[in-house]
Amino acid sequence: MQPTQLIIIGITGDLARRKLLPAIATIAEAGELPPDFKIIGITRQPITAGAVIGGVHGLSEHRARFLRKHLVMHRMNLEKVADYTALDATLTKLTTQPGTQRLYYLSIPPQFAQPVVMRLGESGLAKVPHTKLLLEKPFGTDLISAEELIAQTKAHFTESQLYRIDHYLAKEMAQNIVAFRANNPLFNHTWNNQFIEKIEIIASESIGIEGRIAFYEQTGALRDFVQSHLLQLAALTLMDVPKQWNDLRAARLAALQALEPPREIDLPHVVVRGQYQGYAEETENPGSATETFVALTLFSSDPKWQNVPVQLISGKALAHKQTEIRVHYKRFGTAEPNSITLRIQPKESIEVQMWVKKPGYGNHIERLPLHFTYSDHYQALPEAYERVLLDAMQSDHTLFASSDEVLASWRILAPVQRYWQMQNVPLKIYKKGATIEDILSS
Ligand code: BG6
Question: What is the mean pLDDT of residues 79-87?
Fold first, then answer.
C-alpha cells in the first residue's frame, strides 16, 4: 500500500472520536496500516493530540500510545483559502516518501462539507497527485440538490478520487448478503418472484436523535436512513449477483434503477410517517413535522421481482436496535411458507424458518429456526469504519456509493418528498419504545 496521510477534517467531532480513531487503532493492531502512516487532525480550536485521544472512550494504553505517535494536529480556518496553502505546506513537510497519498476525510456537518470541497479545489489541493476525498452522507437533501452537489464536486475532483461513504455497505453482514446469495444455490435458485412473496428490510433503533437536533430537524428518517442505508440493503438483496467483485457497484445501481418511484395515486397506501412522542419538545419546535419513523413499500420493474412488495422500515426510539432483511417465501399447495432472516446487527446471523413435526403421537407441525450465528464461529467482526478506511486507502471503490447510485435513490424517493411537502399528511405519534407493529397498526 502507498504511504498515507489521513487528513481528518473535524477531528474533535463525534464520528472521529467514536468510530474513526478506534478503527485506525484496530487496523494498526492487525498490522494492516500502510507504511509511513500519519493522521493529520484538523481543528479550529487550539487542542492537543493528547486531548483528542483522551476523549476516545475505552481505548487501551497501547492503542492510545499508537494514536499519539501518529496524530499530528493542524489548526486552520476552513473558510480561508490561504489556510489551505498552509495545510499543503504542513503535509509536504510531513511527507517522507514519494507517492504519498492524501486522504481528506470530511467528518463535518453537511452544510460545511461542500464549501470545504470547493476550497480544496480552488486552492489546488484537489489536483495534487494521489489525492482522495472521503465524504459522509447525506449527499444532498433531494434529487435536485444531489445533482447540484455532484456537479460542484466534479468541478474539482474526478469520480475516481471520490469515496462516498455509506457505512452500511461496509458492514460485514451486508457483504454477506452477496456471499450468501452467490454461494448457496439452494437459496439462489429460489431468489425471485416465483418463490418469494415479499421482502422486509428493517432498521429499528432504540436510540433517539442523541442531541443532533439541528441535523435531524432538517433530515428526518427518510433522508437519514432510507435514501442511503435501506436502499443500499435493498439493492444488495434484489440485484443480480455479479461474477466479479468489481462489478458489484454496477449491479447495485441496476437494482436501484429498477426500483420504481411510487405512483402518486398509491402514496397514501404505501408510505407511513411517524414521530416519537416528545420529539417536538426535544427539538423545541412544537410544529415539527420531521419524521422519526418511516415505512415505505416499493416495487421493482425487474421481471424477476415484479409484484413482490419490498417494504423498507426505519425508526428511532423503538423497542429494539435491530437491522434485518426478512425474505418471506410463498405458500406452496398445502405446505407452509418458509422465511429467511439475514440479521445485519446486532448478533449477526442467518435464520431459516422451517416446519418440523412436533414430537409426539399426533401429526402436528411447528415452525422452528435453523440458525447460524456469527459469534458461535468467529470472534469479533470488523467494524464498518475499518473497512471504509482500508478500502479507500487501497483505492477499492466497491463498497462506496457512486454518484449514479446516489441519484437513483433520490429519484425513487422524490414522489414521497413531494407528497409530504404538498399535502398535510398526518404524522403517527408513537410512544418511545413502541414496536413497529404497534405503529403500523395504530
Ligand atoms: C447514521 C445515521 O448514518 O447511521 C444515524 O445518521 C444512525 O441516525 C446511524 O443512528 C446508525 O448506524 P449504526 O451503524 O449504529 O447502525
Answer: 95
302 HSE (CA, 13 A, CB side): 25
Where are the extended beta strands (E) located within 28-89?
Answer: 38-43, 71-75
Atom of ligand 1 nearest to the CA of 137: 3
Q: Which amino acid is it at 93?
A: K
Kindly list the catalytic residues. Answer: 229
Q: Select from 172, 218, 224, 231 the residue to mutate for testing ligand 1; criterion: most ligand atoms less than 8 Å from CB.
A: 224
Average pLDDT, the chain: 95
What's the pTM? Answer: 0.95
Give the per-residue pLDDT at 424: 83
Closest protein CA for atom 15 of ligand 1: 205
- For ligand 1, atom 2, the nearest C-alpha belongs to 224
Going from the Cα of 205 to the center of ligand 1, the distance in angstroms, rounded, reads 9
- For 427, phi then psi, to 5°, come to -100, 135
Atom in ligand 1 nearest the alpha carbon of residue 219: 6
Complete domains list, the chain, with CATH: 4-136 (3.40.50.720), 172-381+402-441 (3.30.360.10)
User: What is the β-pairing status of strands 339-345 and 310-315?
Assistant: unpaired
Q: Using the atom order of ligand 1, give the atom closest to the CA of residue 205.
A: 10
Provide the percentage of residues in the chain whose pLDDT is more than 90. 91
Cα(406) to centroid(ligand 1), Å: 18
Determine if the peptide bond prior to 369 is cis (ω within 30°).
Answer: no
Taking each helix axis from N to C terminus, what angle separates 143-154 and 403-422, rounded to the nearest 10 degrees?
A: 150
Q: Which residue has the cell 423497542?
A: 319
Q: 412, 401, 410: which is closest to 248 by C-alpha?
A: 401
The C-alpha cell at 8 is: 481528518
Element of type H or E holding 354: strand 349-357
Model pLDDT for residues 227-281, shown as the tens digit of each residue: 999 999 999 999 999 999 999 999 999 999 999 999 999 999 999 999 999 999 9
Say whether pLDDT at 1 is over 90: no
Mean pLDDT within 172-183: 94
CA distance 178 to 176: 5
- Protein residues whose CB sits closer than 6 Å to any atom of ligand 1: 167, 205, 224
Kindly list the distances between the CA atom of residue 113 and the CA atoms of 108, 116, 152, 275, 389, in Å, as whole numbers in the listed order: 6, 5, 12, 28, 18
Q: What is the pLDDT of residue 299?
A: 98
